[in-house]
Design goal:
The chain is of the alpha/beta class. It has 13 helices and seven strands.
Length: 330
């Protein structure tokens, strides 16, 4: 039975859509290769040749786990082909099967390429497959401890060395970037949306938007559309948080009336956040009996309280609060 399935688009989770929109922008994707993957061949990519593959590679063994983004391009003025396979690993945990999963997807990509090649050329001596470059974009909270080479998944791999099939994938960990480390990125859009991965509350996101006000004001219409889509998705995932301030920011941005008004909005938001924190600590300590400890902890975390503050307010251990915070981020 053929293991390649073609599935409808409704498999995507909101977080997936946000990043698919980001990497659907060619400038952002090229910046990602140069600034995050740091490939020495990235400058040789013919940007005009970049094309997202419309084929959906989904394996029966990993139902509803799709080879998230597949880009095709040429390098060296069209003389060579290359395929980029970017897997979006957005769960809070770590998947230790990752090298094996990537192997299956890469084989399917190559099989698809071979099956669609000219039948008069694909069996000739000079026929070459395009290079397939595997990349994992990870935004989970746990430390990534999965081997980055397939070989290490084999028992006694040191003994058999080059006799084993092998490849290395590039890991890009979104949690490893902060405001300072993204300033050199070539793409404004990538700079901004990379920081979305590290925003834990509406307050933090508004503060982030303020930091990137200059970048955001200068986004192209297409980039602003992607930015708005990312904010809309963030709002759907915000739980019980009040997102009306994000609505106002989007209105200001779309009407290009950001100067001054955004600064005032951010200042008011910080005052409001401090009031919520003070109120949350008081409610957590003095009125915590009104809610189960777990639900109280969730409410306080959504307000932006730190793990230590929530632990103090609910009398849960720090480890218990960190676990609850991890569940909220999924």
């Amino acid at each position: 039975m053929d293991t390649l399935l073609h599935e409808p688009h409704d498999l995507y989770e909101p977080h997936d859509v946000r990043l698919k929109e980001l990497f659907g922008n060619k400038d952002a994707f090229v910046s990602f290769l140069k600034d995050c993957v740091k490939a020495d061949w990235a400058d040789d990519i013919d940007k005009d040749s970049l094309r997202k593959s419309e084929t959906k590679f989904i394996l029966q063994d990993f139902r509803k786990k799709e080879a998230d983004i597949v880009y095709e391009a040429t390098i060296n003025n069209g003389s060579r082909q290359v395929i980029f396979y970017i897997h979006l690993e957005l769960q809070s945990g770590v998947d230790y099967r990752m090298p094996y999963r990537m192997l299956l997807y890469m084989v399917e990509i190559l099989r698809h390429y071979y099956n669609n090649a000219d039948v008069n050329e694909r069996d000739l001596k000079d026929f070459k497959f395009p290079a397939v470059i595997p990349i994992v974009f990870y935004s989970g909270t746990q430390q990534w401890t999965v081997p980055t080479s397939l070989r290490e998944m084999f028992d006694d791999y040191e003994r058999f060395g080059n006799s084993l099939v092998n490849f290395n994938y590039t890991l890009v960990n979104a949690r490893g970037y902060d405001y300072g480390s993204v300033q050199g990125f070539q793409s404004r859009l990538l700079r901004v949306l990379m920081m979305f991965e590290n925003s834990g509350s509406v307050t933090e996101l508004i503060d982030l938007i303020h930091k990137y006000e200059v970048d955001i004001k200068n986004l192209t219409e297409e980039e602003l559309r992607i930015f708005n889509a990312a904010v809309d998705i963030y709002k759907t995932l915000a739980g019980n948080e009040d997102t009306s301030r994000l609505d106002e920011i989007q209105r200001l941005l779309n009407e290009r009336e950001v100067d001054g008004m955004l600064s005032t909005l951010v200042a008011n938001e910080k005052i409001r956040a401090r009031q919520l924190i003070e109120q949350g600590i008081e409610q957590g300590i003095e009125q915590g009996i009104e809610l189960e400890k777990t639900e109280t902890a969730k409410a306080l975390l959504r307000m932006g309280l730190s793990v230590e503050q929530v632990a103090k307010g609910t009398r849960l251990s720090i480890e218990e609060v960190e676990k609850i915070k991890g569940e909220l981020s999924q």
